[in-house]
Amino acid sequence: MTSPSAVSRRTVTKGVAWSAPAVALAVSAPTAAASPKPNECYVFDMWASNGRQPINNNRDQISGTVRYSPNNYQDCIADKNQPYPYDIVITVTLDPSVYTGAFKNSGPGTATGSGNVVTITLPFAGTRPGSSVQWSLRATTLSGVTREQAQYKASVQAVSYPEAKWVIIEPRDEWMSNRTPLSYDY
To answer: Helix, strand or coil for residue 184?
Structure first.
């Protein structure tokens, strides 16, 4: 006599047959859910904002502009007026043969220094296409350094820019050398 709580082999086999497709479906679902968001959708441009100013009292003005570029350069966002969700981080590396490493930051964002490398966090989270941020450093030079000696001795590079594509849109380059979409020497 079979007890009412006993399970037959046929019942177990049926259960396995019915659950196998559900297990297969459950395994494939996370792959679809984890598919990455489109990268390089938000387009940025960066350039030197000013020409070489005279060096006064061992202070050299180094400034730049980063722009979240106009809609016609954003080719992979359905709604091309999307705000950018992150801040942008750039570094300014000051050549120690010209600069002491001391600096003063002005403009929006924050700047921290370690040796001759200044890290600037620019406030871009929530900005819309066409928005730009201009940053400025007053970097201290060694005694007697001239504007000509300081030229191209500060290297500017974008280092943190999630989901951003960098292009050269602003054609200016008279104050920059070795310009790429992500960097230039000022």
So the answer is: strand
